[in-house]
Amino acid sequence: MESQHKKQSDTRVFMEGDEVARLYFKTERITFGSSQLSPGQTGAVDPGHPHSHEVFFCSRGNVLLRVGDVYHEMHEGDAVLVPPAVPHQLTNIGDGRALVTWSLAPSEL
Question: Bridge partners of 20?
């Protein structure tokens, strides 16, 4: 496999509630994407991935990540590991647009 460079304009864009999601890469081993939320917006509940761990990294802004019944307040530079099969949901609790990157391994999407 060779390295790949993907521009934002070349990603697959989809909505999860109010959350604008972009899928950058998907291989057998890993999936990588991002989610963007405006202030006060909440994404749809993701039911979780039965066989994959998922990592969320707050690249910009402040978000509340609900993982099951636990809430994680995330600031720029924070990361949360979500275990397999646990529902989760993002809410932008900041004053500006939030950008969160996520990856799951192995891929299931």
Answer: 15, 36
